[in-house]
Each structure stands twice: as C-alpha cells, then as structure tokens.
Amino acid sequence: MPTFGGFGSGMAPPRDVIALLVVVFVTFVCQFFDATQGLIEPLRLSAEVWQRGFLWQLVTYPVIGTGNPSFWFLIELVILFWFGRDVYYRLGRKLFWRTLFVGTLLAGGTAVLVQAVAYLFTGLAAPIVLLQGQHVLVVLLIAAFATLFADATIYLFFVLPVRARWFLWIEIALAFMGYLQSKDLAGFLGICAAVGGVWFFLHGGLRKVKRSPREAWLRLQRWWIERKLKRMRKQRGFTVIPGGGGDDDEGGGRGGGQGGGGQGPYVN
C-alpha cells in the first residue's frame, strides 16, 4: 500500500468520494437487469455523441459502472477510495470535482473525435471500450495523485516500491496494452488525454493560459512607455535623472525634492 497521505491513515472518508462510489456501484448493478439496462446504456460514451447529439454522454460516462461481475470490480472500487480520499483532502471539494470534470471532458472529447475521424476514412465507428465507467475514474484519480504527491512511494502490487510520479507513465503503458488487445485507438488516446490533462490542470496550466494574454499586454505597455520616455529624454529642456535612490543616491538631492525612494526608473 502507498506510504503517503490517507492510505492506511485514520482520516474519515469524504462523503463526496463515498457518494461517487455508490453511484458507480448502483449503475454497475443496473446493467444486469432488463428493467434498468435501458436507462443507463444511453449514458455511456458512444458514437451517438457526434451522430445524434448525445452530448451528455461526455459527462455521464465515468459514473456508469462497466465490466463483468467479478472480484476485480471490487478492487477497482477500493483503488478509487484510496486515491480519491487523498486527492480530495489535498484539493478540497471544489477543485476535486473540477479536476474530474476537466479530465472527463478531455478524455471523452478526444475519444469521440478520434472515433469520428476514423469513421470518415474507414466507414466504421468502432465502439469505445477502454474509456468507460470506473476505469476512467481510476485513471483520473491516479493521475491526480501522481501529480500532487509526486515523491510519495506506492507499492505496486503491494510489493514493488515505485515513486508516484511514475504512475503517469505506467497508466499510459497499461492503456497501450489494453489497446493492443482491444484495438480501441479512441479509448487509448482518450486515456492519454486524461492523464496529460489532469497533470497540466493541476500544475496551474489553465491559470497560466488565462494569465498569459494579460501579461503580454502589460509587457507591450511597458515597452511603449519606455520608448516614450527615451524620446522625451532627448527633447530640449527635459532633464531626466535616476530615481528611486535614498540619501546616498546621486540623484536624491535633485529634481525638486523628488529623489525619495520608490520613484521608478525616471524622474522629471
């Protein structure tokens, strides 16, 4: 088991994570009954997103449990609980759900786009297998954990110690193995987009993207002001002395008493 964060600790399980697991379990059970199967199938990710406009599938597909009834499904729920608890306590409720939402949209959007492009060339819309249900949540939460706790140690298969950051690449490697078996290119590329998207989002990538246009505008303004000051310095009767100095500054006693600190690069 991992040796960092809430794994094996006495922290109370977050209600949000428990609610997420309950929804996945209930939808997983519903797929085996005729009365409820028809209710959950339209919520899975499929070609109907671009063929019939079922856009809600881009949001609902991770919480629709998938797979056969087996012990592995229960293991997946335990993994979701382990990683989900630490990620939730590290990010808080708002950023926790925002991370899942961003990763879900990136993964689903990438998968259906690849599927649609493949259809244009082959005329076939291969079903998306890898990118469904709790599999997506496992990918997103492990990627979030590997990003937030990069130096933590996780015991792979409860035996092999591995740095958490390496799980980003391990997830992609396992997804590639799944692609070799299923030939689900859309699902594989969707998982790659999910891992990369979560890493980028939690490293403040979105904030940098939003901030960069403003920073570029401020740099342009600074460049224009500096050019204007240089032109003014060459004009007759305009004296420019260094500002921002203290008592020992050479220009501190000139300029009509304006030589105090914090005057900027130029003082008129």
Q: For the largest beta sheet, what order do the strands appear in spatially?
A: 1-2
Alpha carbon gyration radius: 28 Å
Q: Sheet bearing the most strands, described? A: 2 strands, antiparallel
Per DSSP, the total helix count is 9
Please state roughly what percent of the residues sit in beta strands, choosing from under 5%, 5-15%, 15-25%, 25-35%, 35-45% or over 45%. Answer: under 5%
Structural class, judged by helices and strands? mainly alpha
* Global mean pLDDT: 80
How many separate domains make up the residues? Answer: 1
Query: What's the oligomerization state?
Result: single chain
Shape field: globular
Low-confidence stretches: 1-8, 245-264
Q: What would you note in describing this structure?
A:
There is one protein chain. The chain has 268 residues and is an all-alpha fold. 61% of the residues lie in helices and 3% in strands. The chain has a single domain (15-203), classed as Rhomboid-like fold (Up-down Bundle), CATH 1.20.1540.10. It has helices at residues 15-30, 34-40, 48-51, 57-60, 71-122, 133-148, 167-182, 185-202, 205-234; strands at residues 153-156, 160-163. A hairpin with a 3-residue loop joins β1 (153-156) and β2 (160-163). α5 crosses α6, α5 (71-122) crosses α8 and α6 (133-148) packs parallel to α8. It is globular and about 85 Å long. Mean pLDDT is 80; it is low at 1-8 and 245-264.
